[in-house]
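tmp note - Efflux RND transporter periplasmic adaptor subunit
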Amino acid sequence: MNQSAHHSADLLKELRIDRSAPPPPASGRGLWIGLGVTATVLVLGIAGWALFGRDKALEVKTAPVVATGSGGGSASVLDATGYVVARRMATVSAKITGKVREVLIEEGQQVAAGQIMATLDPIDADAQRTLAASQLSAARSQIGSVQAQLHEAEANATRLSGLVRQQLVSKAQYDQAIAQRDALRAQLATTQRNAEVAGGQLRIAEHGVDNTVVRAPFAGVVIAKAAQPGEIVSPLSAGGGFTRTGIGTIVDMESLEVEVDVAEAYIGRVQPKMPVEAVLNAYPDWRIPAEVIAIIPTADRGKATVKVRIALMQRDNRIVPDMGVRVSFLEQHKPGAAAQQAAKPVVLVPAAALLKDGEQDIVFVLDDERAQRRAVRVGSNVGDNRQVLAGVVAGDDVILDPPAELKDGERVRVAADK
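out:
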């Protein structure tokens, strides 16, 4: 019995937990699970920072501040819009009605003064010239016949003059010879006049032949081709819609100028010979020097505007008729004490970058990915830009259309160009 009790006590000791022993080693699977959870937490942390930290910056668009150079010491006093026009432009037509035989021009072609643009069918004109030449030849032949008869009549009158004095012929015979001589003289004069008329008709017929050839009235560029071989052209409208009134249109590119409409309220700022800066809508970065030619002395009652002619001081193939153009009328600074100030470059900022803070004009400048608020002093308008007298310098990047919630020093990021 004692042995049995002792054996049971030993078994209970073996079942007791030994808390001082080290924990058993973890399995490999559990270790990989722990590392995966840690990596997931790190990735989620980085993504959260990207979404809620860095990308929290406002997305903006920027534009550089530019300087136009010295600008000749000029500032804009008035801006206007208009179009390029040609003072010398013509739709060339034939002087006669006829069928087109060939057209020798194409759009964009340079033509010289007198160059043949087209020819008409010359059959009728050639026939008229041939008839006029025959009539002239017949008139000249008739002159020769009358002259021979007159020569004989004059000799007969001279012979009878001596015989009548000797009373060898009657006075009646002598008078008849004189009358015949005078009649032939009159007939000769008439024949000579008829020959002159025939010569004039031949010259007209030759002009008719020449009129079948259409020539350029001046040097220029063809901007429109209106007729094709086989069509009927006429200097007058036929009314049926099937007769062309022109061969083509040419423009003298040396005569291009700008016409703008200036509101009546501001026309007093414009003077003849006033310097102007023109910018074509097609080439907004190209500033063309120009000058006021004249102010047309009449107003448009409906639009309350006055037309102003402006001469372009620079010729270029890029300037073509009917192009839209923006012009700035410049006020030339007088030399003297302000000469150094006039020589300073004109700094321009896009009008879209300007904001009003009460009475103060401000812009936001991009500085190290942050929006920096700056107060500026603005001048006159120059197209879509504003002249800035103080506050920014050329090379600064200003934020366009700043959002209302944008604050000074706030982090921003520039939108990618699409």
